[in-house]
Amino acid sequence: MKALKRAALYLIRKRGRTVLLTVLLLLMSCCVMIGFSFKKNTEQEADRLRKSLATGFIMEVNTENEFYHKHVDNHGAGGIIYVGPLITGEMIENILSVDGVKDYAVQLSDLVWTDLKLRPGAWAAREPEDPKTYEEKKKMGYFAMSEDEIMLVRSQTMIWPCRNGAMHKNFRTGAVEIAEGRNIEEGDRNKAVISEWLAEHNHVSVGDTFTIETREGMFQPSQDPMKTWGEPVTLEIVGIYHMNFSQPPSEYTCEDGYVENRIYTDLDTHAKCEENLKSGGFSLGEEFGIENGSMNGYSTVEFMVEDPGKLDSMIEQLKNWDALDLENIEITVDSSAYQASVKPYQQIRIFSFLLLAVGICGIGFILFMVLKLWMQGRRHEVGILFSLGMGKAEIFAQMLMECLLVSAAALVLAFGLSVPVLDRCAAALEHMTAPKADAEAYTAAVSSRMLDIEITKTASDEVVLEHGISGAAVVFAVIFVCGISAISIWISFAGVSSLEPKKMLV
Fold first, then answer.
1. CA dist 406 to 8, 90, 200, 394, 506, Å?
2. What b/e string do you get for 140-151 counting C-beta neighbours within 10 Å, with b at 16 or more?
3. Can you tell me the distance from the alpha carbon of 410 to that of 28, in angstroms, rounded to the nearest whole number?
4. HSE (CB half, 13 Å, CA atoms) of 407?
5. CA quadruple 11, 12, 14, 19: dihedral positive or negative?
6. Which region, left, alpha or beta, applies to residue 428 given φ > 0 means left and ψ of -120 to 50 means alpha?
7. Considering Cα of 430, then 432, then 438, then 439, what sign does the dihedral take?
8. What are the E-state strand segments in 320-384?
9. pLDDT of the chain, 506 residues: tens digit per residue
10. What is the pLDDT of residues 221-257, one digit of tens each?
11. Among 24, 67, 241, 458, which is least packed, fewest CB within 10 Å?
């Protein structure tokens, strides 16, 4: 109690030193509280993004490997096809048994004709060739299209069959989202999810139906391009999706190149499309992984994992797994969407580390030097106290009390000051890292393979930060500030108290 009383009297008498020490501890406390709060907040958001974007790995067949290429001829519409190993259902089940792998999504697409009105593309502006010159130009090798061929390509698009629509990459990354109804679910048959554009311009909604067909002219030259192969498939609309980006028009983009014209459907519909191909004589048989109208393997499968931090070790485990035949199959990390979304949080995390560095290292070093100099200036005082019979522990307790009292006052002031400062800093950082108003968060490009559309996340979403000091930040600041103060006093006092009494009183 005496030590506390002497400490209070000393702080009152030495107002200048007390104010300077309070300011240093206040700055340190503010930097630590704000920096720690931002650091914890950004780490939580980064972890949330990691889980929500389902970052994982992609298994993809190397279809460019010429060793597995074969030339086929289907009524004059032949070409080079891949006939090598595929990713089988058994392989997928084995990989799902690995600890940490939580789900998968297959990447499939089928070219179909639909009775829906599509967003106009390059074919809408093209006029059919005059019937009188059509055959002549074709014989001479010129590109010419009849009226039926033009009408066919204006109404053909791609469907994206899904086992679970929510697991499709476009939905997981937020490129598209369900606006009405629901998504494709496992076990669905003859169901479809279409875009808002298709729903609006065709005057259809959830519960309505439309038709897709497999037509001869889409796959090979034909005198009757509108001829239907197999049976038309009637699809029920169970959901309507909204695009969170816009795809600008281009004179080079065909109708099936616009995302609005793409239709999500179920695997049963995919199997019927394959059966229709086979009925038209276009099936490539077992060599292409198609058996009885259904694919017995996939060229690309995406696996989602629980902890992206274990991706490298997980991929290495799969590559060294003897039970898994990865001949001509590549495994790559899929983190593009996560990297784009987490970038601003990484920048804010760097800012938080700078604040912590300033508070812990910069101000901490200055505080230590100031206390050391002050302690050197109190040698005479310490010597007198020793001569009065006071022990080292009692003198140290007084000086420790002095510093802790100032630390307590600084922490209280820091908490009151840090709340509005953090609020303004958070608002400024949110504004600085906000996506540009005229910039699209996603880009859509037609892939060179399978004429599919690849949607890539290129920008982050709007950054949202907590505008309050977390309890953990306050606890950390109290422990650190009081700890660094006590350590500084102890080291400084140890240097002075070890001197001979005569040197103290000089």
1. 10, 68, 68, 19, 29
2. eeeebbbebbbb
3. 9
4. 21
5. positive
6. alpha
7. negative
8. 329-334
9. 566 676 676 667 777 777 877 788 788 888 888 888 888 888 777 777 766 665 688 898 988 888 888 876 655 555 677 788 889 888 999 999 888 888 888 888 899 999 999 999 999 988 888 777 777 777 776 777 888 899 999 999 999 999 999 988 889 888 899 999 999 999 999 999 999 999 999 999 999 999 999 999 998 888 899 999 999 999 999 999 999 888 888 888 899 999 999 999 999 999 999 899 888 876 544 434 444 333 467 888 988 888 777 778 888 888 888 888 888 999 888 766 676 677 777 777 787 778 778 777 777 777 777 777 676 666 666 666 666 667 667 777 777 777 778 878 888 888 888 888 877 877 777 776 666 655 666 777 766 554 577 777 666 666 777 767 777 878 888 887 888 777 777 877 776 666 555 555 55
10. 888 999 999 999 999 999 999 998 888 888 888 999 9
11. 67
Of 175, 172, 162, which Cα lies nearest the Cα of 106? Answer: 162
- Strands 263-266, 156-162: parallel, antiparallel or unpaired by DSSP? parallel
DSSP three-state, residue 310 = helix
Q: What is the DSSP code (8-state) at residue 314? A: H
Residue carrying structure tokens 């505080």:
367
Both tokens of 183, joined, read: 């998504």
Q: Look up tokens 């007198």; give the residue.
A: 384
DSSP 130: P
Contact 482, 407 (CB under 8 A): yes
Q: For the whole model, what pTM was predicted?
A: 0.65
| Residue 254 falls in which region: left (phi positive, over 0), alpha (psi -120 to 50) or beta | beta
Domain limits, the chain: 2-48+342-504, 56-107+298-334, 109-284
Asked whether the beta carbons of 91 and 331 are under 8 A apart, the reply is: no
Distance CA 329, CA 91 (A): 11
* Structural element, H or E, at residue 295: strand 294-295
Per the CB < 8 A criterion, the answer to whether 274 and 135 are in contact is no
C-alpha 129/C-alpha 374 separation (Å) is 96
Residues, the chain:
506
- On the CB side of 198, CA atoms within 13 Å amount to 30
29: left (phi over 0), alpha (psi -120 to 50) or beta: alpha
426 three-state secondary structure:
helix
